[in-house]
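Take a look at the protein record below and tell me what you see:
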Amino acid sequence: MELKVINKEGKETGKKVSLSDEVFGIEPNEHAIWMDVKQYLANQRQGTHKSKERAEINYTGKKLHRQKGTGGARHGSKRSPIFVGGGRAFGPRPKDYGFKLNKKVKTLAKRSILSARAAEGRILVVEDFALDAPKTKDYSAFINAVGVSGKTLFVVDGTENNLYLSARNLPKTMVTEKNQVNIFDLVNAESILISESALNHLESILK
């Protein structure tokens, strides 16, 4: 598949790039995408939930009353979960929700979503450029010029601080480096912009 390279004004530069069929032309594997997204979201969970159980409550351990003869239930401590202020029974404990996913599956997932977006015509290749200063107005003009709307992901080659700072105040817009592209951002984006240099890197690591 060939795509025309556009500049930051949204005009064709006369250059074309050939997208690798191994990365942008495979049959999408929806299960691999689902597994990768599931792992990504699981890794975002802190898992720091915790409640005190009866052994951790700083409360008297004195027996309330004698075992028998009171006409009431038998109790051994006010720390029991049935009392207000007592420990919680089977409460949540810290947990790591992450799980292992093979590297080949993660690579297949990225190939699949990129192939799906390419088939839908929602991938644009942009000529490398940089902004002189961090201005949201300049980045907004760039997005309008290339003619994309909705959630947009722009994959750039290196650390483009001005691009990042210019885009962070715009809703539904994200700029990320080529080494930090993750499956969640790719799936979440309605349009994917890729700089020429970043495209070469993506194809090299995903082949």
Observations:
- The two ends are 16 Å apart (CA to CA).
